[in-house]
């Protein structure tokens, strides 16, 4: 990973005068990202990105982070009354470009700051998703990059007969896409929104209505579990941990878990690995490598049973 060059950038940047920006805790602090590349913790704020750089398509704020959003190398984050204050050592565009080029899929991309409204984290209420079911295709735009990335990752693993479980499948569009690419799989979906499940039923092999804290896919039968619900706005950080552990129970030993989404993932790779998983990837890049996004590819330990908490 060009370690000497990155160490040099980190060392020379640390001699510079720090700069800072702040974000109110009840505004959008969740847009602040930290991308760990070797000795550098590249910090910046997510803004609208190019989904398809080759076309003139309008910018869109989804899951993509482009180098232009990086401000510098993180020094520290402090809570100053109602604001998070982020201090960093500024980097020039050439240094940012070198660091971004050196990154690989093992680099961790975090969105560490939570929005707090009167001191508490919030998520959309279940009724919100029932409402979105009236126009489910409106959710698809942000999913295209993620779907293609998952299909590529799974291409060698979904050779036929595998069970793929999505514990919060919404309208089943993601599973239907995988089924189209890999017709031999058995697609199992679950969601707690009755309106979403009514649509999913027409698209996937097996569909269940219910809270995924109680997985309705049989214990240790899934070869792949896709978690697109451990995200900001969908659940809170505490709920995300409980839902991760619940989803893990459906996975067979040495099965694959994929965690992603177009709003920030709320569980860290450090925590997920501590639950008995190995992280083979923590991020992925667009095909043109113009942007990076969160995508955790985790392998469950071979142990027959996970830790008692799971
Ligand atoms: C999967 S995420 C969003 C994924 C994708 N961005 C989309 O919009 O299709 C949203 C879905 O998670 C579901 N969901 C949230 N919490 C859940 C839970 N505890 N159990 C089952 N489904 C849940 C919601 O009902 C909603 O359909």
Q: What features would you describe in this structure?
A:
- The chain is an alpha/beta fold.
- It has 2 domains: 115 residues, no CATH class; 180 residues, Vaccinia Virus protein VP39 (Rossmann fold).
- The chain has 8 helices and 13 strands.
- It has a 7-stranded mixed sheet with strand order 9-8-7-10-11-13-12, sandwiched between helices. It has a 6-stranded antiparallel sheet with strand order 1-5-4-3-2-6, with helices on one face.
- Strand 2 and strand 3 form a beta hairpin.
- The two termini are 35 Å apart.
- The site of S-adenosylmethionine has 17 residues, from loops.
From the structure above, extract its key features:
single chain, 310 residues, alpha/beta, Rossmann fold, 2 domains, seven-stranded mixed β-sheet, six-stranded antiparallel β-sheet, 25% helix, globular, binds S-adenosylmethionine
Brief characterization of the structure:
The chain is of the alpha/beta class. Helices cover 25% and strands 28% of the residues.
Small-molecule binders: S-adenosylmethionine
Radius of gyration: 20 Å
Write the CATH fold name of the largest domain: Rossmann fold
In helices, the fraction of residues equals 10-25%
Topology pattern, helix = H, strand = E? HEEEEEHEHHEHEHEEHEHEE
Strand content: 25-35%
Task: Compile the SSE list and pairings.
Elements: H1 3-13, E1 19-24, E2 32-37, E3 40-45, E4 70-80, E5 83-90, H2 93-102, E6 109-110, H3 126-132, H4 143-154, E7 163-166, H5 173-181, E8 186-191, H6 194-200, E9 206-209, E10 222-227, H7 237-250, E11 251-260, H8 269-274, E12 277-285, E13 292-300
Parallel strand pairs: 7-8, 7-10, 8-9, 10-11
Antiparallel strand pairs: 1-5, 2-3, 2-6, 3-4, 4-5, 11-13, 12-13
Bound molecules: S-adenosylmethionine.
């Amino acid at each position: 990973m060009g370690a000497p060059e990155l160490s040099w950038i980190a060392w020379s940047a640390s001699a510079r005068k720090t700069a800072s920006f702040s974000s109110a805790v009840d505004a959008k602090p969740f847009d602040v990202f930290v991308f760990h590349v070797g000795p550098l913790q590249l910090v910046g704020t997510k803004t609208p990105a190019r989904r398809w750089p080759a076309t003139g398509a309008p910018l869109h704020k989804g899951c993509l982070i482009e180098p232009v959003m990086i401000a510098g190398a993180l020094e520290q984050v402090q809570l100053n009354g109602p604001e998070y204050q982020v201090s960093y050592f500024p980097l020039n565009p050439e240094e940012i470009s070198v660091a971004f080029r050196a990154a690989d899929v093992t680099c961790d991309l975090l969105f560490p700051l939570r929005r707090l409204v009167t001191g508490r984290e919030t998520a959309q209420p279940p009724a919100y998703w029932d409402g979105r079911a009236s126009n489910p295709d409106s959710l698809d735009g942000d999913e295209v990059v993620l779907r293609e990335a998952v299909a590529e990752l799974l291409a060698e693993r979904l050779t036929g007969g595998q069970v793929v479980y999505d514990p919060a499948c919404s309208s089943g569009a993601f599973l239907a896409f995988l089924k189209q690419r890999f017709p031999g799989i058995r697609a199992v979906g679950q969601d707690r929104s009755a309106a979403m499940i009514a649509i999913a039923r027409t698209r996937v092999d097996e569909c269940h209505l219910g809270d995924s804290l109680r997985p309705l896919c049989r214990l240790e039968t899934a070869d792949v579990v896709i978690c697109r619900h451990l995200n900001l706005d969908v659940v809170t950080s505490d709920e995300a941990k409980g839902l991760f552990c619940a989803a893990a129970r459906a996975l067979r030993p040495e099965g694959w878990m994929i965690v992603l989404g177009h709003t920030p993932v709320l569980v860290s790779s450090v925590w997920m690995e501590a639950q008995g998983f190995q992280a083979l990837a923590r991020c992925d890049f667009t095909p043109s490598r113009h942007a990076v996004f969160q995508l955790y590819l985790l392998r469950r330990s071979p142990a027959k049973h996970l830790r008692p908490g799971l």
